[in-house]
TrEMBL record:
Belongs to the acyl-CoA dehydrogenase family. Residues 6-117 form the Acyl-CoA dehydrogenase/oxidase N-terminal domain. Transmembrane segments: none annotated. Its cofactor is FAD. The keyword Transit peptide does not apply. The keyword Oxidoreductase applies. This is Acyl-CoA dehydrogenase. It holds the Pfam family Acyl-CoA_dh_N. Residues 227-374 form the Acyl-CoA dehydrogenase/oxidase C-terminal domain. Residues 122-216 form the Acyl-CoA oxidase/dehydrogenase middle domain. Keywords: FAD, Flavoprotein, Oxidoreductase.
Length: 381
């Protein structure tokens, strides 16, 4: 499936394709087994510009629009969704929030390292007691003479143990979304502890952490916004687009693997690709993948034209994440028993896809957001 892409977009996609085939695909199974991506990959992603997409060149960025970002994420996720997640969080949720809301000093301080991949960022919103209900988070930031003292716990934080800077959401005011501010917290600040969560079902190469902030003192200039909840929601709108783009890549990877296998594997004296029920599995996979891509590119197109895209991002994220699970599951069906062992990539596609219906807003949250936009009625309260 393809729409008309500019030469620039095609070249970028080709670069991402080659990078994925050379630097990601050969290692993805090992990273998954060892529960750790090679750390050197991050500056390599920076060198090819994938950590600077959409960021101004003045801060080490590589420019490009939202479609360019989606094209790269699709390719990278075809190789390894865990790598895609590193980009989505460090660049998509954090660096882009700094670029959008930061002071000149904050941009100068953090963006060159993040775009080069010599530094990594994490997005610390979720807490043990507030996942979907992010507006009720309880981490506190109390004003001090020279800045703020932050205390609280965060959980399921992608890049948590690798990060140099954490975008921490903490309560500076009253209850609910309005009382939340956003802070850029250096992770080497005394009292900041990140503990890796091991034994995840998928995305095992990513460093996912539980974070404790125990009276962490930050200077005044660590404050990124006093409208922290709105900043988080705005970042997550684009984040949902990026998860959707990653899901398209994972679904495509599963489909390509299943097509290849179905053409080679013989049963009853012929390749299984010739059986109607196998073709049904493959056809369903292709339709889901292409539909997910079109929904995702619609979000990118709206965002690139400066139009509202939040509801469309929820639609794309909902559809693409559920599609990635279904497509990977079908791929395992095509592979039969071989799909159940990690010598082949399809089991990993399913395990990695599973979290995408949970994070950056569950499928249920996306449905309620879409429902609210359609009806004007808020079902959250
Ligand atoms: N952009 C800007 N502002 C927004 C916004 C958006 N997309 N969405 C809401 N707001 C504003 C609203 O306008 C409102 O402001 P006003 O009162 O001034 O009008 C304010 O924010 C509160 O909005 P809501 O009433 O919609 O807030 P809510 O409490 O009802 O929250 C929710 C709704 C949709 C459930 C929200 O809490 C949510 O999205 N929950 C899911 C949380 C989530 O996605 N977590 C992901 C964790 S991060 C992660 O997974 C990253 C990782 O490491 C992989």
């Amino acid at each position: 499936m393809d729409l008309t892409l500019s030469d620039e977009h095609r070249q970028l996609r080709e670069l991402a394709r080659r990078f994925t085939d050379d630097r990601i695909v050969p290692h993805a199974t090992r990273w998954d087994r060892e529960e750790a991506i090679d750390r050197e990959l991050v500056p390599a992603l920076g060198e090819v510009g994938f950590l600077g997409l959409g960021i101004d060149e003045r801060y080490g960025g590589s420019g490009g629009d939202n479609l360019a970002y989606c094209l790269v994420l699709e390719e990278v996720a075809r190789g390894d969704s865990a790598v895609r997640g590193i980009i989505s969080v460090s660049l998509g949720l954090v660096a882009k929030s700094i670029a959008r809301h930061g002071t000149e000093e904050q941009k100068q301080r953090w963006l060159p390292g993040l775009t080069a991949g010599t530094q990594i960022a994490c997005f610390a919103l979720t807490e043990p007691g507030t996942g979907s209900d992010a507006g009720n988070l309880v981490t506190k930031a109390v004003k001090t003479d020279g800045g703020y003292r932050i205390t609280g716990r965060k959980v399921f934080i992608t890049n948590g143990t690798w990060a140099d800077v954490a975008l921490v959401f903490a309560r500076t005011g009253g209850p609910g979304p309005k009382g939340i501010s956003a802070f850029l917290v250096p992770t080497d600040a005394p009292g900041f502890t990140a503990t890796e969560i091991k034994g995840k079902l998928g995305m095992r190469g990513q460093a996912t952490a539980e974070i404790t902030l125990d009276d962490v003192e930050v200077a005044e200039d660590a404050l990124l916004s006093t409208e922290g909840f709105k900043l988080a929601m705005g970042a997550l709108d684009k984040g949902r687009m990026s998860v959707a783009a990653g899901c398209v890549g994972a679904a495509r990877g599963a489909l390509e693997a299943a097509l290849k296998y179905a053409g080679e594997r013989e049963q009853f004296g012929k390749p299984i690709a010739g059986f109607q029920l196998v073709q049904e599995l493959l056809a369903d996979m292709a339709v889901e993948t292409d539909a997910a891509r079109l929904l995702t590119w619609r979000v990118a197109d709206l965002a690139d034209r400066g139009q509202p895209f939040g509801t469309e991002a929820s639609m794309a994220k909902l559809f693409a994440s559920e599609a990635a699970v279904k497509v990977a599951n079908n791929a395992i069906q095509v592979f039969g028993g071989y799909g159940y062992i990690d010598e082949y990539p399809v089991g990993k596609y399913l395990r990695d896809a599973r979290v995408t219906t949970l994070y950056e807003g569950t499928s249920q949250i996306q449905k309620l957001l879409i429902g609210r936009a359609l009806t004007g009625v808020n079902a959250f309260i």
